[in-house]
Every structure is written in structure tokens, then in C-alpha cells.
Amino acid sequence: MKQFNSKTCEEIMTTVYKPIEFIIDDLITQGLYILAGSPKVGKSWLALDMCLSVAKGEKVLGQQTKKGTALCLCLEDSFQRIQSRLYELTDEPTDGIHFSIMSESIGNGLEEQIESFKNAHSDLKIVFIDTLQMVRNESDSNYSSDYKELSVLKTLADKLSIAIVVVHHTRKCQDSDPFNMISGSTGISGCVDGSMVLIENKRGSRNAKLHCVGRDIENQEINLHFDSDMKKWIITDEPTASKSKDNIFLAALYIYLQKNIDFTGTASELVEKLKNISNEKFYPNRVTRDLVQNGYTLKKFGIDFQYKRTRNGRLITLHYDSKCDSSDGKNSTVVTVNALAVKA
Predict the structure, then answer these.
(1) Is 115 left (phi over 0), alpha (psi -120 to 50) or beta?
(2) Tens digits of per-residue pLDDT, 264-291?
(3) Is this prediction's pTM over 0.85?
């Protein structure tokens, strides 16, 4: 009988996994997403703007993008219409964005087409499918069929480490929960990694709210206005101060290891060492978590990290190699001195 491929709690908690990559900060990671809205609300304009922004490595909706190749399957359009839309958004052809107005359906060749495109364009970051209905095989829309079809695209996105965004419609009926308005069963929203629902405040007002929810993103509502001259959805919310992504613990650790090269000991002992570096208070029960979850970042800064169980308990081993430090922090700290509160 085939056995479970299980892992112990300790194996999971001490394994350094590759971090999830955001294609559009705080909005879209690698995985499968739904972008839904009523017909003619402007979903395709938003999708095209996102694609162009990823291809250029420029901001969209105020968020940074991960530059790379973008593929747009504009299955309800012609190349002539795509040309008209492109000229509304830019006057310069953009490398790294490709369009197709025909594709196979899910389970009948679409996955192979996307995988073949990925093989030819290794930096592929995002694929937009406009619309879901154009690549469906199932005529029924029940939980089982919706989940089954979408799971094929979900598996493909995970396999290729890309984002796939499927453009879809909403129902005419209103609902206090905008995600209940996504056409079809809950199998669609249940399968995807995230959902974005674009709802106009009033039909034709060109003012709307983008409702976002997902496994790896925070739930948020973004107020937008469609600029008819620029043909773009523009954020109307007052910009808020972005959350600092600087990790003071990692910064203190980096400074300590630059001076001392090696450390072997418990989490509590490491915390004691870092008291001489920073005024910030660190907690032993969070040290291992921060080390494991930032394993890839540590390698970038030339820090090798190991965590193992011994007779004397669980020991942390750290080693700094300046030759492996590919960061720009060799002559500076990871964060500013003031933010780190380095002791004199």
C-alpha cells in the first residue's frame, strides 16, 4: 500500500524553503488568481496595464513589480483591437510582452502551450487568460467541475513558478460579500490562491473598488478611478506609509557576524550576544523562526545557517563568509543605523 509522504513537525519547522515571489507586491504572488468584474467594467484594461508594468518592471496600482516576460491570452479580442489598446497606453513597443488571440482549452492542450512558452521564455512571470469561459470545457458550473478545472491551472502555476491570472465575470445580483459575486460555484474561489473583484461604485461612474483576498496577501480594498485619458485605473486612496521590510534582528546578526565570523550556541545565547549590538529586544522563541524563514536572505549576505539537535539541546550554527556576500551591505548595515539603534 502506498504510504503518505509525511514530514515531522521538526522537519517542517527547521527546513529553509524558497520564499514566495511577489509578481506585483501585496497583490499577486506565484500561483493562480481570479480577476472578476461585470462586463465592460474595465477588467481587460487593468489586466493589460498589469502585463505592461511587469514587462517594464514598473509600478502598477502603486505597487512594485517583478520584471519579466508577460503573456496575454486575449481570447475575446482581435490583434487590431489589442493594437488600439496598446497605443492608448504607450507609444513604444515593450519587450517581454506577448499576445495570443487563440488557445487550446483546459485539459486539451492549454497547459502544454503555456509550458512550451515558459521553456522558450525562461523569465516568464505572469500569464493572463481573458476570459475563463473561453478556455473551459465543462458546460456545468458546479463545485466539483469548477474546482477540477481551476486546479489544473493551479498545479501548472505552481509547477512553473509563475502567476496565472484568469479574467472572469461577476453575477448581476448584488451581495454584501463581493467574492460571492464571482460567477460560478465557490469551487472557483476555493481553488485559487487569490481573488480580485472590481466593482464600480455606480455603473458608468468610472469609480470603483478592487476587493482583494488571498492566501499570501492581506485582505484589502483599493479605491480606484479610471482615467479616460490615460486609459488606466488609478488609485484614489491617500498613500499610506509602507510597512518596513527591514528586519532589525537580521541586521544585528549581520553586524555581529561581520565582526565575529562564527557562532555556535542556543537561541538564548545568540540573543545575549546581540544585546551588545542593538537596543532592540529579541526573543529566543522567535530567533529560529526568523533564521529559517529568512534562510535565502542570509545566503545573500554570506551567512551559512544550520540548526540541529544535539545531546545538549538544539544548537544554532552560523558562519559568515565575506566572499559569498553578494549584498550591498559589506560597508554598511542592512538597515540604517538609526533604525537599528546600534549601541556605541
Answers:
(1) alpha
(2) 999 999 999 998 888 888 888 888 888 8
(3) no
Q: pLDDT tens digits, residue range 110-169?
A: 999 999 999 999 999 999 999 999 999 866 778 988 999 999 999 999 999 999 999 999
Query: What are the residues facing 234 on neighbouring strands?
Result: 225
Please list the residues that pair with 99 across neighbouring strands.
72
The rounded distance, in Å, linking the Cα atoms of 215 and 82 is 32
Give the C-alpha separation, 162 to 164, whole Å. Answer: 7
CB 222 within 8 A of CB 240: no
SS3 category, 257: helix
For residue 72, the 8-state DSSP code is E
In angstroms, the CA 110 to CA 241 distance is 41
- How far is CA 97 from each of CA 124, 125, 301, 319, rounded to the nearest angstrom? 9, 10, 33, 42
Bridging pattern class, strands 31-37 and 194-200: parallel
**308 burial via Cβ count (<10 Å: 0-12, 13-18, 19+):** exposed
